[in-house]
Amino acid sequence: MNREQTxxxxxxxxxxxxxxxxxxxxxxxxxxGPRSATLKNISAKAGVTEPAIFRHFDGVDGMFQxxxxxxxxxxxxxxxxxxxxxxxxxxxLEYAYLRILATLKADSDFAYLIMQPDPIFREYPxxxxxxxxxxxxxxxxxxxxxKEAKAKNQLLASADPDxxxxxxxxxxxxxxxxxxxxxxxxxxxxxxxxxxxxIRAVIQHPSYKPATIVLPKEVPVAKLVAKEKKSxxxxxxxxxxxxAAKSAKAEPKAKAVTxxxxAAKxxxxxxxxAxxxxxxxAAKxxAAKxKKxx
Length: 294
Hints:
Number of helices: 11
CATH topology of the largest domain: Tetracycline Repressor, domain 2
Mean pLDDT: 78
Helix content: 55-70%
Shape: elongated
């Protein structure tokens, strides 16, 4: 994991070192399965020693707790996709659907952790319960979009909302799992668009005109940044201090030059005053008057 890492989530709670270890754990599980997430394999993938893991996590359980926090944060981000577009019904669902696929594609290292978390956290009952809540919330968002589409006359009267939701989620999950498990180089975003277009063509009402969905450029959410790099103000301050120090040293030199100039001008004035004092002709005139008197 030598590549540069940055975090776009403002509430990302992990340092750079922790983030690198979490990413390594997620990659190990995607490549070899959840049971391969041993300290030996994770440390080897991260390029650190096993004891280094204990400096950042409270053992293996502490690492899995942090991995679950990562899953929770991604699910929270996905929920935001259902509300940020301002679209309604099928358009709103399409926007969220495509954004989720784009995120998984951009953050492929964490994709297995996000999409197949059940076997990863099966030995942690409390985390399993929380995971069920996250999934239920996501299903509820899909159902709300379809219900809204029905009310807006975007669906055929014969289209059953539950069946529509199951078709979208089921077909998409199969495609993503194939991508994760088989290491398929297929572009899941493009494949997802095909799936969506096929389902929509079957269920949409003839009078419904789909909105033009414009997606923002997806930047990897999981590019991890160290907390230390979030406050780089100290370095610029030090850099600014150096010019200030130079200017402070330059000030005495400038003063010395200004003092030297008046001293140089004072010398000509002193010579000018000395000339009247040495006026010898004035002393000879009285001597000449004395001879005439004789």
